[in-house]
Amino acid sequence: MAHHSRLDAYRERVVGGPLIPTLLRLGAPPMLSQLLNLMYGVLNSLWLSLYSEVAVAVPRQVFPVQMLFTSVINALNTAGTSLVSQYVGARMYGEVRREASRLFTAAAGAGACCFAAFFALRPLVFTHVVATPPEIYGHVMSYTAVSAFNVMLSSMVLSLTTVLNALGETRLPSLINLAGVLVNTSLDPLFILGLGGVPRLGPLGSALTDTIGLTLSLALLALLFRRRFAEVRPGFTRDFSPAWVKLVARVGGPVAAMSALNSSAFMVQLRLVNSFGVEVAQAYAIGFIVLDIADAALWGLSGSIAVIVGQLLGAGEGERARRSAVLGSLFVSSLVAASSLALHPIRGHVVRVFTSNPRVVAESMRFLDTILLGLPFFAFFMCGFSAARGAGRTAAVTAINVGRLWLLRVGASYVLATWVGWGPMGLWAGILLSNLAGALLMAAWLTLADWARPVIGELNAR
Prior knowledge:
Layout: H1 2-15, H2 19-51, H3 58-69, H4 71-89, H5 93-129, H6 134-167, H7 171-193, H8 203-228, H9 242-275, H10 278-294, H11 296-314, H12 318-343, H13 347-354, H14 358-391, H15 395-419, H16 424-448, H17 456-461
């Protein structure tokens, strides 16, 4: 009973609390954690640029490919968020533990499969699909040899974090992430630049420090469940009913398809970027470093919308869930707009931290002058998608996302860059158009579609 009282207290703070304070309370720890991750990413890019200016482009080459191999993991965590949060909202705590174990077991198995596939296929992908510039191909191969293994570790870390966040506990997993980030930050210059007697490993060293940080996070999360949340502690299970598989496929299937199609779109776009040479590839990577600074609030706060919506739907408060999704999305996108405005005047100084090449600086500035305009719209879209995750209604928003990426981010970019003759500027304009269209369509779905209904009732009925 004491354990249930603790879970009830978490639930009441989400279901019974006012929207914005609840959003900030749930979102502030992940947002601070994301800022620390951002700090690590910026420093990581700085160490890579000191190792070699072209090496800064390596992680951005890998990102869309890694997204393809983690699409199933994203789907499982989406289903886990909606099911666990809705069961908490409905006070069905026995089902929470069952769902936590199912999620952890499925994530571990999927992570192992993704690791094997990514490792085996990476030479084919980076040679023939992405067409990585030869100046950085060797670095990409060594980096992905380790980052493929990190996919498996990350899948287990994310599944445990998903369960805790769905309960309404975001502070402790954020502190655990902080510990991992601090380890990464302290080891990065040693492994990348070869300081303190460690061999000079470059991008490979960056991937190895990620392995160490993820291993620490996994161990601390397991300890947290054992000490504080023993009543819902996940374990390995074979309890996968046909009804559960069917519901997870319906909730997570569109997300898996979206992640795979998103990754494919990003790889096609990356191939277009690479076709203009390594300097444009550098500008693309540096530009996204700056964008990550501008939208740091998004990745911390948007996940809280999924938790709030899921618990409200589980508690039977559909209209309040819809209102929370719309207002929460507007609030977060306003914060991103403010950060974009604050960053715009100093964008040139940030870019010059990572490159002294005037052509790369100029292209990075053109990238940022275009993309920063649409960043608040991208934030609104992602917050709406988070609401869909909490509700377990992902099919329509997946269709919106796939359409905006393939028709605008890829299609319009190709036309503007090649047929119209805008070159790289055409690629940046296509990204802007995709963000604008995505936000408008998401606003229509949030306000007009019949999505504010829980999915756990369907599983219980079966």
